[in-house]
Prior knowledge:
Elements: E1 2-8, E2 11-17, H1 39-43, E3 115-119, E4 122-125, E5 133-140, H2 141-147, E6 161-166, E7 172-173, E8 183-191, E9 223-228, E10 237-241, H3 244-251, E11 267-273, E12 283-291, E13 298-306, E14 321-327, E15 333-341
Parallel strand pairs: 13-15
Antiparallel strand pairs: 1-2, 1-8, 3-4, 4-7, 5-6, 5-8, 9-14, 10-11, 11-14, 12-13
Amino acid sequence: MLRIAASTLGRSVVVLLVLCPPLTGARSSLAASIEVRNEAATAAPCAPGDVDCDGIPDDVDNCPVTFNPDQIDSDGDGVGSACDNCASTRNHDQGDIDRDGEGDVCDYNDGLIYTTVPDPLYLWWQGELLFPTYNLYRGDLGVLQRSGFYTQDPSTIPFAARFCSLAQSSPFSDPVLPKPGEAVYYLVSGNNATESSLGIDSQGRERPNDNPCPHPACDRGFVPLFHTDNSQFTFPRTGLIDNEFDWCLFRGATYPCDTLGVDFSREVVLFAASGFGSNGCVDSRITCIRSGTTAGAIEVLETLIRPGLLCGCPDNVVYPLDIVKLPRPASPATFFQDFYTLNCPR
């Protein structure tokens, strides 16, 4: 995603450019995807200009190929709820990069990080389940146009900046504004075992990362499995679970129980509970897993996320618990802790 914040005649102008890959494999005609959903439509042909037989002319039908005579549009994006791939979130373009039927703006496991700019002084990006931390890059648009460098060296480019290994996707404060006639832009990537792509440009080419953030030594990729802000663990606790019986016992369930998709013949589960709950201000996330010093051993980093000076206290966080899974071998596991302070706008 790319944000441009420009200043013109002393007034700030913010432009959000969302550059997505071109859709491929689109059907050549609307009729190819029509599904007749009512018995009346099978008994008689539809009226001209009403291919879904719902009584609404195609040129004003908010779902031209889906039967929806009520024309309900819950999120007001111009696409009817009956055919909207994000029925509760506005997305008129209906983008779906991984073609799983769930629109990009409400799909949190497609690897696409949507960025939004509600104010010139801060931005936020979509939290993706696959990424425990993020890198935010700010660049000078003029330098990009002259050099082609999307990520720029902050030591030589005044407007360039790198914010690395951020354990947040909530509003992030960056009060830097360009001078009149100049502009800056932002790119966000995600971290797991490796850093994700910066996406593709308008020509369909992947953006190069010439000045990347130093990647943390987190070589063991993992998948977030479950997180809650209100668990039963009222004291700090971490651990590794490598069999279904112990997993059921951990969950307080009778064996056999729902493994939440974990194949214990090939995978293990790691969990971390901070035990913080008296003030409801500190969340807990597993943010990094790296290989240990002996064969199969792993080192696990639990990050305690606390509010910054301007953030206030999220009173819904009470005894947080984070659970992830990763492939074997993964034993023994040693846990470490660090702190991350949220950067909130004024």
